[in-house]
User: Fold this.
Amino acid sequence: MGDGGFQFLDILLLGAIAGFIALRLRAVLGQRGGHEQRRRRPPFAGPESEVDKAGAEAGREGDNVVSLPRRDAPEQPVDEKIARIRAVDASFDGAEFLGGAKAAYEMIVTAFAAGDKETLRPLLSREVFNDFAAAIDDRAKRGETVETTFVGLRGAEITETQVNNRIAEVTIRFESELISVTKDAQGHVIAGHANSVEQVTDIWTFARDTRSRDPNWTLIATTAPN
Assistant:
């Protein structure tokens, strides 16, 4: 076979390879993965940046892929407490919210023990912050210090929800384990024990104005269990 025959075979081979690569690219690029879909703003997160907004808008404009429901995945019933919030905020996700609330709980507990008002301020309503700040100031006047080690959460459960004038409220019962020691001005232990893990139950209520573009929830009430 002459050089022309080899050239012809080379062209066929290159064409086949190019076709295979094109099919692979179409298979990959023609589908959108979870990272390409628009991200929902998580609860307790900071305000959405302009970069995030621009990226979300661009994603919507170029999105021509329609996801169809799977026949083998029947729709799950929505808990009544969650449905109550979704009635005014369709993007509310109970599991996602609970994850954010757990992180906020640990942050608030440790910040209060350390007397860190700046960390507490954006996480608390004005009334709750004023109460926490007053307790921190009183402790400082007495010369007391608190050393707290957050061992972990044993459980967290949404116990109640309500909506008043589009203000959504979610109450959570936290079961945690802490090591907490309070010392006086001379460094003597006056409460707690450095080697004792304390079982603590807290009932906290978080709220958010669903009319606001701010996705953050704030702690509006703390209640002792009955």
